[in-house]
Amino acid sequence: MRSRILFGIVIIVVLAIIFGIFFILKDKIGSGAKIKELTTLALSQEEKQDFLNAKISYQKLITDFPNSRDINTWQKKLDDLNIKIIYSNLACLQTQNYEVKTGDSIYTIAKKFHTTPELITKSNKLKNQTIYAGRKLRVWTVPFSIAVDKSQNTLILKAGDEIIKTYIVSTGTNNSTPVGTFKIKTKLVNPIWYKEGLVLKPGSPENILGTRWMGFDLPSYGIHGTTQPESLGKQATQGCVRMANPEVEELYDLIPLGTEVIIVD
């Protein structure tokens, strides 16, 4: 009798395991099919330059399948799409059409909407910054902000509450990057580095500031490029936030003076 009971228990356990494996495999197969379907749709939308719907597709992939091994690829795609949308002429919730008035310039319009001349020029596919009254321009109206996480060596660009893109950066050795809330006070192209009485010009091997400088309202600190890209992702600077040159140039064109920067441990 006891052996029959034990045998019955074993059968029940085995069947439970089999059914458990079956449902796990069924779920994985179903998830795989859904991932393939959504990925194919997103790639097709990208190819057609339907960036807004492609963005929705990648957001759904990230939300619905957070444990997928492809999530970093989807996030990179989403970051790139966000930048493409910002630089495109697509109408979206963060933009408005502005009709140029007599006396307007790219600079005065940028200041009015707290954006940058570079972003207005690029998103409207202007060959130069000459504009005429009556022309309609697409203008980005949602303010950007920046969050730097020293523990992860990341810089997050946000528009309102939406995360636009995450960059890998370097922060200060021995945790020397200051913590707090700052504003972008200065912006320079191909900055000169004044180091211990030396004047290191752009292009000098000793000038490690790279191609852009965005200084905080805290003297001597800011966000800049680098001649040492191998240091990104580490604590490697004298306290500033260091980025790859192509990425710091991208950020420079997007954020105006006065942009808020929050740095946390």
Please explain how this structure is put together.
The chain is α+β, with helices and mostly antiparallel strands and about 260 residues long. The protein is about 40% helix and about 25% strand. The chain contains 6 helices and 14 strands. It has an 8-stranded mixed sheet. Strand 8 and strand 9 form a beta hairpin. Helix 2 runs antiparallel to helix 3. The longest helix has about 45 residues. The radius of gyration is 25 Å and the shape is flat. It starts with a helix and ends with a strand. About 5% of the residues have low confidence.
- Shape label: flat
Straight-line distance between termini: 66 Å
Strand proportion, as a percent range, falls in 15-25%
Largest sheet, strands/sense/barrel: 8 strands, mixed
What is the alpha-carbon Rg in Å? 25 Å
Poorly predicted runs of 5 or more residues: 22-28
How many E-type strands?
A: 14
Number of helices: 6
Secondary-structure element string = HHHEHHEEEEEEEEEEEEHE
Mean pLDDT: 90
Strand order of the largest sheet: 5-4-3-14-7-10-11-13
